[in-house]
Write a structure and sequence with these properties.
The complex is a heterodimer of chains A (201) and B (417). Chain A is α/β, with parallel strands linked by helices and 201 residues long. Helices cover 18% and strands 28% of the residues of chain A. In chain A, α3 links the parallel β6 and β7. The model of chain B has no long low-confidence stretch (mean pLDDT 90). Chain B has a 3-stranded antiparallel sheet with strand order 1-2-3. A 3-stranded antiparallel sheet of chain B has the order 6-7-8. Classes of the chains: A alpha/beta (201), B mainly alpha (417).
Amino acid sequence: MSAKLETLSENLQKHFGDKIKSLKLALGEVTIEVGAPDYLGLMIALRDEPDFRFEELIDLCGVDYSTYGDGAWVGGRYAVVVHLLSVSQNIRLRVRVFAEDESFPAVESVSAVWSTANWFEREAFDLYGIAFLGHDDLRRILTDYGFIGHPFRKDFPISGYVEMRYDPDQARVIYQPVTIEPRENTPRIVREDTYGGPVHG
Amino acid sequence: MADIRNFTLNFGPQHPAAHGVLRLVLELDGEVVQRADPHIGLLHRATEKLAETRTWVQSVPYMDRLDYVSMMCNEHAYCLATEKLLGIEVPERGKYIRTMFDEVTRILNHLLWIGCHALDVGAMTMALYTFREREDLMDVYEAVSGARMHAAYYRPGGVYRDLPDRMPQYQESTWTSAQKAKARNENRQGSLLDFLEDFTNRFPTYHSEYHTLLTDNRIWKQRLVNIGVVSPERALQMGFTGAMLRGSGIAWDLRKKQPYAAYDKVDFDVPVGVNGDSYDRYLVRMEEMLQSNRIIKQCIDWLRKNPGPVITDNHKVAPPPRENMKTNMEELIHHFKLFTEGIHVPPGEAYAAVEHPKGEFGIYFVSDGANKPYRMKIRAPGFVHLSGLDEMSRGHMIADVVTIIGSQDIVFGEIDR
């Protein structure tokens, strides 16, 4: 398997050269990072070039890196991560592209390259507010009709902003500000580098 | 000249053939579907966001509630991805138990699918037959985890505990006479493996009953043959996996191609369709059940001969045995840290996928080294398959949409997440 991945990394270097910002081979998976302007062209090549032939787009999702490592993150905030699968060669590849503008994150759409991407991009748009340029049907998909905001962004609270209930006085369903108190049973902890050093065993 | 317009029909979200909460807006020309626009998200619970606020182990039960008819397979993908990040190995016996329960789950899933699919198409009896068999398998679930559906049995590092030595027994009650209880308990006298073996011996007979009821049934064939045809090229384009892809003639099975657990050590065949229609997908899934039966038998055989640990002995991941915790200071600290803080997973990212009964079910993790995942993405096969519904149902009659939904084997827990 690892020989296959090394061939894949070499092929990627050979074909795309400096279009690839970084190439990582870790945990038996190849990850490449590309710039937003090169993204679409590279994806088409990954599908069509005989060296790659990634016929299937397995997954596409948004990631919000703003609180990564409790503020240790440097780099773009919104990324789109795509998982590709080549059925003919039995290899996988992960492609990451960062949206350039944080106030209006936008990435080229690949829904014309793989039709699977259609719904996945709608989902990433819905949950992260990442716009996909060239997508012909960019509607919300998972959240409620008339939902405001992008719930998977790290600054969106886990309990949301509004709750829904039936109001007997008005005899209809209404929205109101959430009444539940936020709580955290197990705090989130990123251990310092020296944790569990020689003193603590 | 009268103005002729397309008719728009709202199918669901409360339609019995909508398999849960699918709202389908169908644009019809007479009775022919011009466009199908599924509106999903009515069951959206933001599982992925919830997982960001839970420790790594606390999210395992959420996995059961994704695809709630193939519970343990979901857990398996979650545990595989976590283990990949942690870089730990599961003991051999744990792997075999997982393989066995994945296949038990596959049969459970396919039984529910064939029952409901037939029910949608108009064959009432199938559901009664398949729920009879599901009962036995749910008892197996119950014996091993205490829950009939939402097991939470797999853990990062292995499985929660070893297989039990005895099966729960039926008791005499107002509804069950002593005689009846005795008859029901007859094959429950031995261990869980004995009970499961008895089931695997009985199952082929049951399976042939399904074939008798459906395979050559004239109505069944009229409803399924040539409905929802997908060519291999389109199946790849639309991202189909699992039986949906194999039905179109592509022999792709992660259990063979990228083996995990003990799949490289058991013997089984991968059935493949020819025409890519609903009938082929039906035949593929039917054959898969027999293959699963075969795998279960091999696992039972192996598990009988090879006792051993079922979960990793790395106590930074899995809790130490209770006995050691009481006598050993270090184990007590491990236990305390695990249950107050949870596992710490090294920073990085990983994607792990399993051959779920419905297709490729994958979990993608981004970790920043905390005791909770930074980002979890669930790659649900049903989500992708449903996105192909528009293309599959175009030009078909409205009644065929029900067949196509049934043939896609859709469960909303995983689509809406």
